[in-house]
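RETRY 2/3 - previous attempt timed out on the joint model. Re-submitting the same 765-residue input unchanged.
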Amino acid sequence: MHAPVELADVAADVLARVRDRGPRVHCITNTVAQQYTANMLLAAGAIPSMTIAREEIVTFMAEADALLVNLGTFDAERRGAIEVALGAVDAARMPWVLDPVFIEASPGRAQFARDLLARGPSVVRLNPSEFAPLFGGDPAADAAMRVAKACGTVVALTGGTDLVTDGARRAAVANGHSLMGLVTAMGCASSALVCAALAVESDAWLAASSALAALGVAGEVAAQTARGPGSFAAAVIDAVHSLDRATLRARARVS
Amino acid sequence: MHAPVELADVAADVLARVRDRGPRVHCITNTVAQQYTANMLLAAGAIPSMTIAREEIVTFMAEADALLVNLGTFDAERRGAIEVALGAVDAARMPWVLDPVFIEASPGRAQFARDLLARGPSVVRLNPSEFAPLFGGDPAADAAMRVAKACGTVVALTGGTDLVTDGARRAAVANGHSLMGLVTAMGCASSALVCAALAVESDAWLAASSALAALGVAGEVAAQTARGPGSFAAAVIDAVHSLDRATLRARARVS
Amino acid sequence: MHAPVELADVAADVLARVRDRGPRVHCITNTVAQQYTANMLLAAGAIPSMTIAREEIVTFMAEADALLVNLGTFDAERRGAIEVALGAVDAARMPWVLDPVFIEASPGRAQFARDLLARGPSVVRLNPSEFAPLFGGDPAADAAMRVAKACGTVVALTGGTDLVTDGARRAAVANGHSLMGLVTAMGCASSALVCAALAVESDAWLAASSALAALGVAGEVAAQTARGPGSFAAAVIDAVHSLDRATLRARARVS
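RETRY 2/3 succeeded.
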């Protein structure tokens, strides 16, 4: 397990590499989240692409460095796009993130998410309410470690404190701000940031922990000037853009 | 008819209940408005859901407290989703709001809106230009009272001064700011706020009047710091989030 | 070729006419860009409409003053909508703008863009990376003049310095700010502004140059107060809304 200072430095390194390399992150995501997700990726230094047209996915994936599969809009077109995109992921051994949005509200979506889990995502980023329909059981740290190990994936369970585990290692990221829960697509955007980190860091556990620590710290910085959730949404983008090593070292609370 | 101070207090009560109970508002709305609508609901204390996948609507509606039907995107998928959602509304006797966006520009959309009107929405929230294609006649106060009575619905006709009537009672809400007309989806978001109010206030006329007064006051507060329509859009979200009884009492202009 | 001061005044005139007449700009654009594009048009004084439902396009186009065709979302529904909309454009001799988003990533999209080019857009607004797949060759000024002349269109090639040419005349607009590249849909919104300008200025070269100069100046004004790309996105909208002749004269750098 990494000490706080160490992960802060890893996060700063990961962020520096994203800014330097500008990885392309292809996002199959919901219409509510597209704009905020794209702006989050751009602020971090990555390049978003978002097409879901089945006939185009292959050529877009050929230039992509990571894939985000977000189930927030669950239509036939996106399901088809996901299938094609995952074929490209398998062929290129590309990292990908599964974000099983709102599966607790829809048995069909939950079944689809379980099928995707079997395809081996690098990271599953989810909320506590999405844990049981995907993995079974309660969203406790021990259960998360067990399913991460069993599924061979990194589980990033976000909330008041984010838990990131690959089954062997475990990080608790205690950053963030309550206003983050009042901005639609903040969770979706955090999954996209994890994608950008995976594009430049092959250790998926470090990548996910770094991205979530960075976003949590950015949320705290943003809350210092925001007047409410509207200005906060923009301030988080600003804070991600200007986030530096000193701020990460001073603020990251990882154990 | 309520005096200004009374409606200000009712609005404060309604807002307090929304914040306390966190009602789920299911929104079948257009892609342009989804993000702003979701953020408006979150700022008010409600929980948005937005799926339009036909096979999922029933399970999402099972957890919803109110439904928004917005015609701003008018495609086969949404029309199918609306049909299924209204079945759930009928079964659960759930309040719902019809927002007949841009029906003046499309006869097919206008016909669809008239068919929906026959299904008995709790509230119709519309602009003056949408009045004639939906109800026939000019958007005057007397005509609005007549059609509200005839249709058994609350008509919320928004503009410089908002008119809210159930056929017997009538409120004129003279709040708001001209910048509200320069933010896309502001009307759509106001309909979503009416939905959130309906989820906690069974008197649809009070619910609609409260939501529109609250949003109008929030717009005035936002205009005090905004530098233009871009910063204003975020400032309205901020102002809804922090709106309190004292501000409502001081600013609500309802007759 | 116009001197800087002249184009600043033309741009101020065009902007004044947009504010005065409030042209309706129909946008067939991608879901990521819809909200920002609509807010940009509203800030400039134009009225956006965005339906892509095939059965509605004709009635929406009947009230439109200009059409934007943006290929950022490339699905069957939009392709059908574009076909119908261009029929209305031909019948009404309406100006229209082609924005061939991301065609370098998709041969099918590039072919579709070339087919649209043959339909005679008033202006093609594109990035350097989109030049080769659409026109062939490198995105140099001479090549742009040649293809503009051959295709009978205005080519507006945007980047660090924007190049606008109708084959005979050429403007280099050296305004803008690097943060503009970090806001998703900024290019899409610039194409929409060109559309609004075309609705009130029949010289397509002047219209495109004016719109791009205005947006570039607005970007510079916005950068003075923005704290990063999040607040910048809103500040650009604010700056477009309040842009005046004096600022255009002081800042426009056109040669």
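Residues 41 and 245 of chain C are 19 Å apart (CA to CA). Closing ticket.
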